[in-house]
Amino acid sequence: MTPETSSLFENAACGLLVCETDGSIVQVNQTFCDWLGYRCEQLVAQQRIQALFTVGSRFYHHTHWAPLLQLQGAVSEVLIELKTHAGDTVPMLVNAVRRTSDGHSYDHLAFFAATERKSYEQELVKARKSVEQSLTHLRKVQNDLKENQNFLSLAIRSAHMGVWTHDMVLNRIKFSQELQELTGLYHSNLWQQPSHFYKSIHPEDVTVFREGVQEAINQHCEYEVEFRLQHASGEWLSIVGRGHATYSEAGQCITIFGIFIDISERKKSQLALANAHRQLALADRKKDEFLATLGHELRNPLAPIRNVLELMKRNTEQHPELSWYHDIFHRHVSQVTHIVDDLLEVTRISQGRLELKKQVVDINEAAQIAIESTKFFIEESQHSFEITLPDKPLMLEADSTRLTQIIVNLLTNAAKYTPPGGHITLHVYATTEQAVIRVKDTGIGIPSEKLSTIFNMFSQLTPALERAQGGLGIGLALVHGLVEMHEGVIEVRSPGIDLGSEFEVRLPLATSQVVDKPKSQPTHTDKAAPKRILIVDDNVDAAESLGFLLEFEGHSIECANCGEDAITMAEAFRPEIILSDIGLPDINGYEVAKQLRNKDWAADVFMVAITGWGQKKDKLLAQEAGFNQHFTKPVDFSELKAVLRNFSQVG
């Protein structure tokens, strides 16, 4: 019913009712309710019109009015008496017409107050017009209702929904036409036994459905349950049921109304999405395993190369021409090591496994180290380098190593993607609450469509790679991750191709302006006291080259290339220090350490793991096996010497 027709019906000058042929009131307007002193809900579906008549009028209705209405289909200007809610008698004139729609008959009644017959007759013409107008609007309402029902049915079908009704008094369940089409469960008798319906619910879901609906009845609230319903074809549909109950004045549940929504396609999509997530997680895990293995395989050959470079360095005084070769090899080995470390660290950041060692540091110190680290690369490319640093300390709460790494990667990136003879600017300054690191270049620039993905792992600029030194696309991803871990932000700007780029990092300033100075370390002699050292590595070159270096330091060296040989040699050699790889051809380095730790003589042996496996879990495994120290290949020989020196001091 539209708002217009509803207003006309409710506020008509006469009392309007729609009744079943047995007198049950289906619809009543406010005018009639006001005359008799009832509320609408006290009459609709609760009373028959005959119950409102006096005894005499009820008899007249039974003997005259009702038979005439059935025979003629209409009754005009019948005078009857009605009882008000307060018990008073009110005379009224009634006009009635019986109409049939969709095979169902309804009586449309119009009542007029007739306290004075004469007054009624004077206004009869007006009343008749009002009744005709009201009946016309009522018919329009019925047509609108039918049209709305058609639209509603279309909407319900389109949404894969259907309506169900459970008459609790008759204990019958009814499916709407849409729900029958949805489930394929057609019934010649629309009302069916609840037991038939429950047989269609998956046995595992019957209890869930019953309890969900019952709880809603008890709590006088809406219910929502998810269950499986069997289609007539045998297929199980995933259904969400929502609805509520209606109650009598005594609080007894009369009817349960609800809709069933078919979510089978959504469930299939969710299942497909879950499978995709599992496949993605599996691929991600395999990627991590591959990167870890790649790092191990790349680090292993780097170890003997770095050892040989260290040996070469010792001969540069006698053979100065070796210095040039040494410097070239050393730079490129360091670059490969840097790439491997970046590759593994960006993976650890994405998994949340990289930990920062924060302290209050001066960003100037980190910038100076970064400048020294990249100076040769920038000069080699013949770039001019403009540097602007703060005149006074600028304190951040940061991991100094990672802070340097951020600046190094940005400067390296600028040098790499700027053609020879370009200009690079490093500007570090402070705002009110932030430190700003700005690196600008005159390089190949970044297309606008690439700006949003430039920090993605393995992001590449093509065809820019054809005009630059290229890379794996991990440096900026690592920078982005490290900046976020420091609660900062990084932005990139570029006017376009061949117009250069600018990266700006903003990091929060430290609340304290006092630098955390590292604890001073006691001074040591240059060399550790001579020790018996057993080197265990299946890479013969790595073992022998490290052995040569340690012999130069005055130590006694033995080398083993498998785990079993290491245990046998240790029994005879009784080393004070063991440097062991983990991946060995027979038993691994963890097992070697465990077996030796069980021997009385080896309880105080200083064991160092030197391996290509460098993740946090690898260090924990080494510690649990009995190793005192863990180094990731290729080990910096100066760091190894420092550890041996400390052991000698303690020992």
From TrEMBL:
Asked if the record carries the keyword Phosphoprotein, the reply is yes
CDD domains assigned to the protein according to its UniProt record, in alphabetical order: HisKA, PAS, REC_2_DhkD-like
**Catalytic activity, per the record?**
ATP + protein L-histidine = ADP + protein N-phospho-L-histidine
Start and end residues of each Histidine kinase domain:
293-511
- The PAC domain, residue ranges: 223-275
This protein's source sits in the domain of life called Bacteria
Pfam families, alphabetized: HATPase_c, HisKA, PAS_3, PAS_9, Response_reg
**Enzyme nomenclature, EC number:** 2.7.13.3
GO MF annotation list: phosphorelay sensor kinase activity
Q: Which UniProt keywords apply?
A: Kinase, Phosphoprotein, Transferase
Q: Per its UniProt entry, what is the enzyme's top EC class, as one word?
A: transferase
Name of the protein this chain belongs to: histidine kinase
